[in-house]
């Protein structure tokens, strides 16, 4: 029969006491922090989810900061466009009042000074800055976008910012989209039917009163027609770039319209003033369209912020289920471990208080 030494009994008691104290210490730490997961070994799978949720929450906070910057930039831009709309409405009122020939040249020259101030105000709005960056310069935000003549010096790019996962919204508009008329397709020069079968048909047909005659001398022989068709078939098709017409440059701007109004008032030309009225209407409509676009972007930013906040609440709820401790269960375990430790101490005291006389019979 194997003999159990006093040393082995001592080490067994010490191991039991240390194990109980370690459990109690772990429960006490969880009770002080109210966290079930203190280290990755407590719940390896749950720890992965906790780290992922923390990363998403950090991203969400950055998205909210980005949205705040976007709203400030867009609101500032909208206020500038609103002021420009008021300037054009004032210019339109002047143009409507001066469109007739009731006023003499002296009165119109006096009104021209007001129009000149309106143009200077429009240039000032176009060169407005938020901080040290111009809001209508595209990516060249440190370059003054318009000179005194109203010529655009920026680029056609937009600055975008991420307000939600993989969702970017524009927060700036280039000056060409705001102050210049929209680009259009140039009208083709010459006969629009040139090169088509209808062009040859028009040459063959002669209209004399109600009689329609066909000029037989212009008819193409059959062999030549077949050769022409064969050449058209063998001809290399034009590339898409060759077929597509090029976009023409922006035709007019807010500044040129105001300058024309000023010059027409100086020269006492009411016909030019009348011609400017529809152009001013188009400019105002373009500004209203830009303000509507900014409003829709602001609504999108608000929706993105609301979505990020909802996602944050869902993440926190899920993280709580994984990381936070159950208070009732925690304090029940804590009381039980205290009782176990007390019982371990009592049992250990009875075993360790033995002396040599207890073993002599």
Task: Compile the SSE list and pairings.
Elements (H helix, E strand, L loop, with lengths): L5 H28 L10 H55 L6 H22 L2 E2 L2 E2 L25 E5 L2 E4 L4 H5 L17 H8 E4 L2 E4 L7 H13 L5 H4 L10 H13 L3 H54 L3 H26 L9
Antiparallel strand pairs: 1-2, 3-4, 5-6
The CATH topology label of the domain at 51-183 and 253-316 is f41 fragment of flagellin, N-terminal domain
- What is the total tally of β strands? 6
For this structure, what is the CATH homologous superfamily of the domain at 51-183 and 253-316?
f41 fragment of flagellin, N-terminal domain
Strand content: 5-15%
- Overall geometric form: rod-shaped
The biggest beta sheet is recorded as: 2 strands, antiparallel
Structural class estimated from helices and strands: mainly alpha
Low-confidence regions: 184-190, 201-212, 214-226, 240-250
The CA-CA distance between the termini, in Å, is: 20 Å
């Amino acid at each position: 029969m194997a003999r159990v030494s006093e040393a082995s009994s001592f080490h067994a008691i010490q191991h039991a006491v240390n194990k109980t104290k370690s459990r109690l210490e772990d429960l006490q730490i969880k009770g002080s922090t109210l966290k079930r997961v203190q280290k990755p070994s407590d719940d390896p799978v749950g720890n992965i989810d906790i780290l992922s949720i923390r990363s998403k929450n950090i991203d969400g906070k950055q998205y909210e900061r980005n949205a705040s910057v976007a709203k400030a930039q867009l609101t500032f831009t909208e206020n500038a466009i609103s002021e420009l709309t008021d300037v054009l409405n004032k210019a339109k009122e002047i143009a409507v009042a001066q469109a007739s020939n009731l006023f003499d040249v002296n009165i119109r020259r006096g009104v021209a000074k007001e129009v000149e101030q309106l143009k200077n105000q429009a240039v000032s709005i176009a060169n407005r800055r938020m901080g040290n960056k111009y809001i209508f310069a595209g990516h060249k935000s440190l370059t003054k976008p318009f000179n005194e003549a109203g010529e655009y010096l920026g680029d056609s790019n937009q600055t975008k910012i991420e307000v939600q996962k993989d969702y970017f919204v524009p927060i700036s508009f280039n000056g060409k989209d705001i102050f210049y008329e929209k680009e259009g397709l140039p009208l083709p020069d010459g006969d629009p039917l040139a090169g088509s079968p209808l062009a040859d048909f028009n040459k063959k047909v002669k209209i004399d009163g109600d009689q329609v005659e066909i000029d037989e001398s212009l008819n193409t022989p059959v062999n030549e027609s077949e050769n022409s068709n064969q050449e058209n078939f063998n001809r290399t098709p034009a590339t898409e770039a060759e077929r597509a017409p090029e976009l023409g440059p922006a035709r007019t701007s807010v500044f040129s319209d105001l300058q024309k109004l000023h010059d027409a008032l100086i020269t006492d030309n009411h016909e030019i003033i009348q011609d400017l009225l529809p152009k001013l209407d188009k400019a105002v409509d373009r500004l209203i369209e830009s303000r509507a676009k900014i409003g829709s972007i602001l609504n999108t930013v608000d929706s993105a912020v609301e979505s990020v906040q909802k996602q944050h609440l869902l993440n926190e709820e899920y993280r709580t289920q994984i990381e936070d401790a159950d208070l009732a269960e925690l304090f029940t375990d804590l009381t039980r471990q205290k009782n176990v430790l007390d019982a371990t101490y009592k049992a250990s005291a009875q075993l360790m208080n033995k002396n040599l006389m207890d073993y002599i019979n």
